[in-house]
Amino acid sequence: MKPKMIWSNLAVANLERTYKFYTDLGFKPNGPHTSDQLVSFFFGEKDFIIHFFLKHIIEANLKQIQFCDTEKVNEIVFTLSAETKDQVDAWAKEVEKAGGTIISEPESFGDHYYGFVFADPDGHKFNVFYM
């Protein structure tokens, strides 16, 4: 297989809240792919796309797939690469200010690693990582 692109589709409860959270963090909206059923953002220098669909819409469209309760289980953990420890610390503050939940505070681990884990308002997990 040689797909032209890859992107992610996640389920959310409230599009306005999701849009505000990710724009507050500075992510660029993927305007042509935003509607009353989803909001979409570019992540990283290579513009990885994450679509955030209303849960009932994505489940209806994918028929046999049921999305998990992100308060109880993880569907995926994305990793966001930071350039410095100071940037990790700054992003943790930005996440909290935007309404995210810090799951694990910024800390060193292993020989050369520093980071933290957060959840967005719908419980989607992100690992912020500097190495």
UniProtKB/TrEMBL annotation:
<feature type="domain" description="VOC">
    <location>
        <begin position="4"/>
        <end position="131"/>
    </location>
</feature>
<dbReference type="InterPro" id="IPR029068">
    <property type="entry name" value="Glyas_Bleomycin-R_OHBP_Dase"/>
</dbReference>
<protein>
    <submittedName>
        <fullName>Glyoxalase</fullName>
    </submittedName>
</protein>
<dbReference type="Pfam" id="PF00903">
    <property type="entry name" value="Glyoxalase"/>
</dbReference>
<dbReference type="InterPro" id="IPR037523">
    <property type="entry name" value="VOC_core"/>
</dbReference>
<dbReference type="InterPro" id="IPR004360">
    <property type="entry name" value="Glyas_Fos-R_dOase_dom"/>
</dbReference>
